Amino acid sequence: MRSYSLIAPAKINLYLEIIGNRPDGYHELAMILQSIGLADQIDVHSISTDSIRVHCNHPQVPTDKSNLAYRAAELMAMQFPEAFAQYGGVEISINKQIPVAAGLAGGSTNAAAVLVGIDLLWKLGLTQPELEELGGTLGSDVPFCVAGGTAIATGRGDQLSPLPSLDNIYIVLGKYRSLEVSTPWAYKTYREQFGDSYRDSDNLAARANAVHSGAIVKAVLDKDAGEIAQKLHNDLERVVLPAYPQVLQLREVFANQEGVLGTMMSGSGPTVFALFESQQQAELVLLQVREAIIDKDLELFVTRTITHGIKVVSSV
Ligand SMILES: C[C@@](CO)(OP(=O)(O)O)[C@H](O)COP(=O)(O)OP(=O)(O)OC[C@H]1O[C@@H](n2ccc(N)nc2=O)[C@H](O)[C@@H]1O
Ligand SMILES: Nc1ncnc2c1ncn2[C@@H]1O[C@H](COP(=O)(O)OP(=O)(O)O)[C@@H](O)[C@H]1O
């Protein structure tokens, strides 16, 4: 095969607790990550020149080495030089549907798709744990994007424990097109404002692992959407909501709509999501929010929880 098309789903954070400062400069996290139906399409092709090329339909996404998909291809070329020499270069086309810098892991899921696509293109036969480990060197959220579904993530966000899949919880996502939140800024600001409360760096991993026995994990195991929605949590809201009043307002508008089980910001934001029992309720609330906030800058999507990560849709 000389070409693969892959679906690269976005994620939301059902739970994000910042446990403390790690010696490597990152933050120890306890998270629950959930794949959603909103996805990019990634095409990877073998090309005869020994180069890596990236194309993207979204003007804000870089196509040079700063693109995480480019870096994933470069990593594969460095790790598997013989295959790179044998199969030649790689052309990557990104059809971007996931909002950029939105807290939805758009770059991470593109990188995960490139790892999976090149593994197939070069017939490497890597296992999922091997792909996840490679992904972890590109970004904290990349291992989850390879695996997908529903998972507890600890460490930098790269240590995964799968949970039973949550299918068909419906979601409305709201994101202001012109608002982007920098993830490093969000963590740095959190550390500056709240770092004192977690200066004790002992037993970080043990404290993060306590999430396994927490109430939201129990709700996920029970597949109880209402209870999951009651237990949504994101520590990064403490810094992002005060800095971005529009995000706070959107969250409040969601919270006041009938049928909303719960609402929260995803990751470092600024996307806000709301959970629903049915697609019909989600679609109705999307219309109500559109009427409540008349702003062309606000994009709204209906989607749902899904049970997979990167998926191959065609090969030629
Ligand atoms: C906040 C989260 C929640 O899922 O997602 P997004 O909002 O980016 O989607 C993640 O923690 C983001 O993951 P990802 O975007 O892969 O992060 P990385 O590239 O590894 O790190 C970007 C920067 O975030 C900070 N960072 C990230 C992860 C972590 N555990 N501690 C940190 O302090 C560091 O400043 C790092 O330089
Ligand atoms: N393939 C990619 N898709 C989206 N953004 C990318 C990609 N590669 C690099 N970036 C850059 O990464 C930054 C974070 O974007 P993204 O991964 O969408 O957000 P988040 O980390 O909030 O989930 C953006 O500023 C963007 O320029």
UniProtKB/TrEMBL annotation:
Keywords: ATP-binding, Isoprene biosynthesis, Kinase, Nucleotide-binding, Transferase. The active site is at residues 11, 141. It comes from the Bacteria. It catalyses: 4-CDP-2-C-methyl-D-erythritol + ATP = 4-CDP-2-C-methyl-D-erythritol 2-phosphate + ADP + H(+). InterPro entries: GHMP_kinase_C_dom, GHMP_kinase_C_sf, GHMP_kinase_N_dom, IspE, Ribosomal_Su5_D2-typ_SF, Ribsml_uS5_D2-typ_fold_subgr. Residues 67-149 form the GHMP kinase N-terminal domain. GO terms for molecular function: 4-(cytidine 5'-diphospho)-2-C-methyl-D-erythritol kinase activity; ATP binding. Residues 217-292 form the GHMP kinase C-terminal domain. It is an enzyme of class 2 (transferase). Catalyzes the phosphorylation of the position 2 hydroxy group of 4-diphosphocytidyl-2C-methyl-D-erythritol. HAMAP family: IspE (MF_00061). This is 4-diphosphocytidyl-2-C-methyl-D-erythritol kinase.
